[in-house]
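Researcher: I'm preparing a figure for a lab meeting and need a structural model of a single chain. I don't have an experimental structure, so a prediction will have to do for now. The sequence is pasted below. Please return the structure as tokens so I can convert it later.
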Amino acid sequence: MIKILMIVPFEEMNELVCQVWNEIEQQEQLSSSEDRYELTITQASTTQEFLNSNPDADVIIARGGTAYDLQHKHFHIPVIELMISANDILQTIFEVRERFGDIPAAVIGSPNMFEGLDRLLEFFKINCKIFYLKENTEEEIYRNVEQAVSSGRQIIIGGIRGCIYAENFGVHHTLLCSSHDSIWNALMSARQLGVTSRRNREFVLSNQAMLDNAFEGLISLDKDHRITALSTAAQKILNLAPGNWYIGMHIQDVLHSPRITAAVCSSQSYIDEIVPYGNTHLSFKKVALLLHGEEVGCVLAFLNATQLQETEIKLRGKIYERGHIAKYTFESIVGVSSTLKAAIDTARAYASTASDILIIGQSGTGKELFAQSIHNASSRSAQPFVAINCAALPENLLESELFGYVAGAFTGANKNGKLGLFEQAHRGTIFLDEISEIPLALQGRLLRVLQEREVMRLGDDKVIRVDVRVICATNKDLYTQVKKGLFREDLLYRIDVLDFRLPPLRERKGDVPLLAEQFIARFCQRAGRDSLPLDPDAASLLSAQLWPGNIRELQNFCERMVVLCRSNSIDAAFVSQLLAHSIHTMTTASNTPRRSANTIDTAKLRKALEEAGGNRQAAADRLGISRATLWRYLKRMEEF
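Model: Understood. Here is the structure written out token by token.
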């Protein structure tokens, strides 16, 4: 909708304006124009009276002194002048002569109304003097009427204010009226200009919105280095009072910084440097705007050091948060065995609740896969999924990772402090894998967090509320760990609200060929080679293995097959050969003799554990094996 605002100096004009507008509307109904127009009429006899009404339009129609005033003040809304021609004024004077005779008259108005009128008055020998208004204020109108009366003028011809003051002075008066044709022409011009004005205002509004929502403080200048646009951020960064009154001012009168002014006024088309400003330093950029090789203006960009630091912190937080995403769903789980389906059904049921969950399963059975699937099937799916392996970090680092710390909490701490994983998981899910490996000293603090859903960062005395769902996982019998004094009984009862067991691979042998085919296809694609079909006999051989490392071990074995296979398919002979050369001899379901303990260097394992102070991860690192492999060796040692 294009809004046209018409200013009329007296109420009598309303009827004529409405009549002309209706005529135009009836004519436009026959056209196919998509633009729609709205006309608003407001009455104001002076410019200030009109401005006090806070006008809002795409184009304004005004006449006489008001039009002259607005145009010369460069009003922000385009102004169409409702013309009063010299002939119209002359016609009014003739009507006055017929009514009052040849008496001295005065015409009061702005210079744009009287072009050529003085020659016509002289030609027709009419006793009429022109009084010019420069500012169209009530004081000036009154002063001109007073001068006209003092000089012997017996009739005043002008606007409503002039007629009112003439009435006060006791002299005759008559209004200068606009003709039908003048109003028609002004309205048609306003409709045309209104379309362009509307588009321009939309463009300016869009640009200003971009300016105000930009992180940097932005200022645009014309070729004379006067401000044409200024963002809200620039006003804050440069400590300027809010408002639009800077528009049109020279940049040196606004910033009062000789260094910046010199850089702006220099011939350099691009500047990027750090400059002092007040009590701080700013990152300052200048980019020249070139048209046909000529600089027609430039854009200035400002940032202060505090903003840069805060942005970096926020950006790190956002990137960190985006990294806490659960990738897998229940549809990602491969298998058709009844034991697996039972576990999935239980997990799906648990996902719809808000209770904490304990997943029990051997290493490599897919505990995190299930944890992510539960999260994505829950009402928290749009929130962070934060996972941590509790066995992967020493006690001091584990505590700071879980609960965070404030600046200066300990030597080497980040100067800005750090959010703990519980805070990062707020409104989402935190997955504590290998929960059995949390040191006893830390279990008490974890228990309080799980009970109260409150954390306190290291070195802080403030409590922070967190809304998280906790999923724990373990490959150990926690009740046995409690009996051994390695796990707190109260913590066990707190995490063991909803539990379920993941079946090891040996209990879902029918899923082995499906998993193997998927792994083989994935590794073939990664290696850029054609797919390798798995022969039925080879699949049966894989299904017959116990796979103590479960799915993770099967996955690694499939990758080994893809790397080493030189034929177009994987057959049983190749699988048998590869199994025979594995790091350890795999047993089958049909033939499961115990291996002798002397196949493992028991002394070496014990020595590594002693040197690592009982820390299994450190011992595994010393031996150059994974923690899961170390666990399997120790398990076998316990069997003999």
